Amino acid sequence: MDVSSGRASPGNRVFLRATKFDGTPHWLQPFRVVADDGNLLITSYRARTPIYTSRGEFRSPYDSIVYFWRDRWYNVFRLSRPGCPTALWYCNVTTPPTFDGCQIGYIDLDLDVKVYPSGCIELLDEEEFESHRLKYGYPNELVARARAAAAEITALARERRFPFSCGTDPVRDRAGHRTL
After folding, report:
1. What CATH architecture does domain 13-158 belong to?
2. For the chain, which residues make up each domain, given as ranges?
3. First and final CA of the chain: distance in angstroms?
4. Residue range 80-130, pLDDT digits in tens
5. How far is CA 46 from CA 6, 79, 84, 103, 129, in A?
6. Given Cys at both, which of 76, 98, 173, 176 links 67, Cβ 3.0 to 4.6 Å?
7. What is the pTM of this model?
């Protein structure tokens, strides 16, 4: 991390530590920093690298470019099989992430959105969200922000706005402008 700017340096290794609302560990995953403009932290992950979840170790078949906005209630994983184009975008509705230079942290809020290059969009885990809303006592503001985040993801995907544009550089928008 560049201490003077508060930004992560490209090439550095960072870890994601996601928890559930009650602090229970949910996900631990290593990444490499691709770019960081102080708000949007872009990382990458190689297929088959171990990911540690609350259900045990997992190895994704996908290479990933992952977008963490420090001011948004979601993140986006752009997934592709090695050597292939984008297979899908997997979006996690979460609290805005924290970043201490080594670790990205957030609370997973259960709702997820899958976006396919064909334009198909699926909202996932609504039942889990409702169950955890009751179990953990999600505050009304958190529920509203989570639902708004899912709606924002859906709108960006429908409009094929960054990062939901096929065939573009994962750190550039549809018009080819750098997003950083």
Report:
1. Beta Barrel (2.40)
2. 13-158
3. 17
4. 988 888 999 999 999 999 999 899 999 999 999 999 999 999 999 999 999
5. 25, 10, 13, 18, 29
6. 76
7. 0.89
